[in-house]
Design brief:
This protein is an alpha/beta fold and about 270 residues long. Helix 6 crosses helix 7. Helix content is about 45%, strand content about 15%. It is built from 8 helices and 7 strands; from the N terminus they run E-H-E-H-E-H-E-H-E-H-E-H-H-H-E.
Length: about 270
């Protein structure tokens, strides 16, 4: 991965709980934390999808436990947290990557209340429940790193994505309030805000752009990249690097912050 090689075993003897680790930036973050010494509790609804990532982590010499859990369900989250604490004795790091996209291309008045409630539940309640479950043990140990993965649509509005944008703005508020409450207990809480990430979803976006403008897909990619100061599209590895930084003590004096990983789109 592109972020490899810059850091060396910064997380030895740390335990990281990661939600949504099966693919994309979730898998990239999982393996980068493993490469840097962290043992892992990998959490999600589809354990079959998570298991291959867990196997890669184990091949690196790390412990990796896979736990089935719907992060929007309070009872399941509490049971998952107890299982992690029983297995490892602690959770040093919590990375909340699990989330949803919500309705695409709909105005807020076309969005149904059910669609709105669903994305708010996944993107805010899911993080709230996992943070709530692990905060007491972090407080008791006077140590913890919580990293929530938001998005750049939580830093600026976006037409056609009102429900999703609202969920990510709400996650930022939760992050900042939690940082103030947990700060006296030496627990850092931050939010990583990725922009568009190269992958299947981005390919769909550029394909639609190419068809709409009558240009090639490569030209559509280049046109998209022109919106960024760095003129390049972000990758899952780029996001993983930011998560690694916030999971280590290199970032011990950083809390309550939004870190945009977007090549300079939100400036």
């Amino acid at each position: 991965m592109g972020a490899q090689g810059s850091f060396s075993m910064l997380l030895t003897d740390r335990v990281a709980v990661i939600t949504g680790p099966a693919k994309g930036m979730g898998a990239a973050a999982t393996l980068l934390l493993a490469e840097n010494g962290a043992d892992l509790a990998l959490v999600g609804r589809d354990i079959e999808a998570i298991e291959p990532v867990a196997e890669q982590a184990r091949a690196l010499g790390r412990r990796a436990t896979v736990l089935q859990c719907d992060v929007t369900d309070e009872a399941q989250v509490e049971a998952m947290a107890q299982a992690v604490l029983q297995e490892y004795g602690r959770a040093d790091i919590l990375v909340n990557i699990a989330g949803g996209t919500g309705p695409l291309g709909k105005t807020f008045w076309e969005t149904t209340p059910a669609e709105f409630d669903e994305i708010i539940t996944v993107n805010i309640r899911g993080c709230f429940l996992t943070m709530r479950a692990f905060a007491p043990s972090m407080i008791s140990r006077e140590y913890g790193k919580i990293i929530n993965v938001g998005g750049t649509f939580g830093l600026r509005g976006r037409a056609g994505r009102a429900a999703y944008s609202a969920s990510k703005w709400g996650l930022r508020g939760l992050t900042k309030s939690a940082a103030l409450e947990l700060g006296p207990h030496n627990v850092n809480v931050n939010c990583v805000c990725p922009g568009m990430i190269d992958g299947p979803r981005f390919e769909k976006v550029t394909g639609e752009m190419a068809g709409r403008l009558g240009i090639t897909v490569d030209d559509a990619r280049a046109k998209h990249a022109e919106e960024y100061a760095l003129r390049r599209i972000s990758t899952g590895d780029d996001v993983a690097g930011a998560i690694l930084f916030l999971a280590t003590d290199l970032s011990k004096q950083i809390t309550g912050q939004d870190i945009a990983v977007d090549g300079g789109w939100v400036i």
